[in-house]
Amino acid sequence: MTCDYIQLANDGVQRLRPYQPGKPIEELQRELGIHDVIKLASNENPLGPSHRALDAARHALDQIHLYPDGAGYSLKAALAERLGVGADQLVLGNGSNDVLELIARAYLQPGDEAVYSEYAFAIYPLVTLACSARPVEVESHLFAHDLAAMAEAITERTRVVFLANPNNPTGTWFNDHALDAFLARVPERVLVVLDEAYFEYVEESHYPDGLRRLARYPNLIVARTFSKIHGLAGLRVGYGVAHPQVADVLNRVRQPFNVNIPALAAAEAALDDVDHIENSKSENTAGLVQLAEGLAALNLEQIPSVANFVAFDCGGDAQPVYEALLREGVIVRPLGGYGMPRHLRVTAGTARDNERFLAALGKVLGDR
Ligand SMILES: *Cc1c(COP(=O)(O)O)cnc(C)c1O
Predict the structure, then answer these.
(1) What is the pTM assigned to this prediction?
(2) Nearest-atom index, ligand 1, CA of 96
(3) Which domains are seen in the chain, by residue range?
(4) Which of 9, 114, 166, 363 is within CB 3.0–4.6 Å of 173 for a Cys-Cys bond?
(5) Residues 6 or more apart in contact with residue 163 via CB below 8 angstroms
(6) How far is the CA of 168 from the centre of ligand 1 (A)?
């Protein structure tokens, strides 16, 4: 081979580090021969999906010889009604990651800049580099977005700012005053992507709803997902809500059938299952308390979280702790790739899973 196919790739792609997903349960079972494995690594809903969503997905299987409705008419109508927005403001994605990528593809060119925070969701630099645009990472404050510094970082070349509220992997959030002050400072030509993947979980009274700001800020795009509280991560459905012109642009670049038939059906049914959403929320709130108390009892410093996970400091290199937990059959997420080598992130599971995680962690740390 005389060609270097890495060198032939687009500039940004050469520098891109692939996303590191949580370890799949089957992989650990294969590698260590452990059967009783719990995964608290990918912020999935420990209660699973809504039964109504499952039934809808099963019924939809009868139709899978057909292409899906590429426009997602029915799901969009349901979302528009539930969210109080126009159907023309919506773009559906194969997960909200797809929506984030569509934004980058449509609005970022080589030489353009995309601003995001240190310790923010790893997909932001990834989609930016995939378009050979320049990622501009702004120093965080106590692991949280420093919105004033992010506003300062906007230049003539900035086209997109990515905000995660709450942020993954830190679980930190910003309030309505901070968001409004930020939006007021951003020029209209700069798109602000407000990633609200964990929106439904947050209970803080000053937590801002991005949708309520769309009318005032035509440069705002709100991204949400069915992967988290709705428990449909495996089906891949998310959506963006934006000004109709922006939604039009994003709909131009997406693949014509980017959301599949069972996913469309399940998502629509999930929206209506208010009980499942409420149960998932209260299970999570209890789980966060259980984890916070358990970690405190182990004298581990944690980053206060309003999402469905918590990041904690292992008091040293987290990698051996992560690996020892794997041997106990517990999968969590190491954060070295985020520049947080001392931290692990654990998803709030059922009371039983949390207990098992805390017991395993206590054992592993005691063994050090
Ligand atoms: C999980 C998550 C998403 C959603 O991912 P999907 O592609 O919808 O599964 C988006 N943003 C953040 C910050 C997340 O943690």
Answers:
(1) 0.96
(2) 8
(3) 8-39+275-367 (3.90.1150.10), 51-272 (3.40.640.10)
(4) 166
(5) 116, 117, 145, 147, 150, 174, 179, 182, 192, 193, 194, 195
(6) 8
